[in-house]
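Record 1 of the preview.
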Amino acid sequence: MIIESPVIRVGLAQRELHEHLSNPANLEPLLPAEYVQDFESEGDQCSFKVVGGFSVVIKQSGGEPPRQVRYASQKGTPIRFVLDIWIEADQLGSETTSTLQVKCDAELNPFMKMMAEKPLQSIFSSMAEAVEKAFPAG
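->
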């Protein structure tokens, strides 16, 4: 199942935004507090609890710099998924702005899909909105 945030415009250049989002510690303020608690970060991974009961552990796992930051779920996470943050240079010619979209490819059985789809959509849309608020595009 693919879940996508809206595409948003950000007031940071592509490389700067890629560098910022490649650090798992910088994800904490982007995660919606109403859905996420107990955030911890160490090295190239972070963990948190999703309200409702399950823990999530994700690790930075490559991507295509400066266009893509990739995180993958790790052992201890009940849902297998890859989280891609796609960053494109601004097509309007500005060197100080870029666009961003969060995409998640999750392996969910039909029951889990029914339970998790709306909360996951909300989390990833909130992440994109938080980046937009943190780095407004003028």
